[in-house]
From TrEMBL:
GO CC annotation, single: chloroplast stroma
Protein species of origin: Tetrabaena socialis
Name used for this protein in its record: Protein LHCP TRANSLOCATION DEFECT
InterPro entries: Ankyrin_rpt-contain_sf, LTD-like
GO BP, one annotated term: intracellular protein transport
Length: 166
């Protein structure tokens, strides 16, 4: 407390809007003492470049750059949770049953994505090497699970490229 009293009784050296400010001499304002202000850019700048100015997300290794064998259990579980299967079903039983069949992880994600009509995910994993002829636990193919016309067209094109008649 003693240090606080000493600090308050110190003479005013900086002008502040207070009672002690009346004792301070005003500083004259002259523009010659100010340096010219440098122009500033206050917007957001990115240190990476995507699209036509740089890399796209696939080349940068962010989305869609994985191959078939790079998908694993964690990807299946993440997609299962992301799409809300756990919330609606309450358990991981369906996911664990699909994994127990030794089906490839990317093919499990394909079946789940087709059942939810997730067109961007299906496009990504077909490009990564998912098998469009795989059958789920109920014996249905991704084409039978898909309901959206553009998703069905994408799957039919993938099947045709594998030589499977639709």
């Amino acid at each position: 407390m003693r240090g606080l009293v000493l600090a308050q009784s110190a003479p005013c050296t900086v002008c502040r809007p207070s009672r002690a400010a009346r004792r301070c001499a005003p500083r004259p304002f002259t523009s010659s003492k100010l340096a010219p202000e440098a122009p500033r850019y206050v917007g957001a700048q990115a240190w990476f470049k995507f699209g036509k100015n740089g890399q796209n997300a696939e080349d940068a290794g962010i989305v869609g750059s994985q191959g078939r064998d790079e998908y694993n259990y964690d990807d299946v579980e993440a997609y299962f949770n992301y799409m809300g299967f756990l919330a609606t079903e309450g358990t991981y039983d369906r996911m664990e049953a699909m994994l127990a069949t030794k089906m490839h992880h990317i093919d499990i994600i394909l079946l789940l994505a087709c059942s939810e009509n997730d067109t961007p995910k299906v496009q990504e994993i077909l490009k990564a090497g998912a098998d469009p002829t795989v059958r789920g636990l109920d014996g249905k193919t991704p084409l039978e699970l898909a309901a959206k016309p553009e998703l069905r067209a994408m799957l039919e094109k993938a099947l045709a490229s594998k030589g499977v008649a639709v």
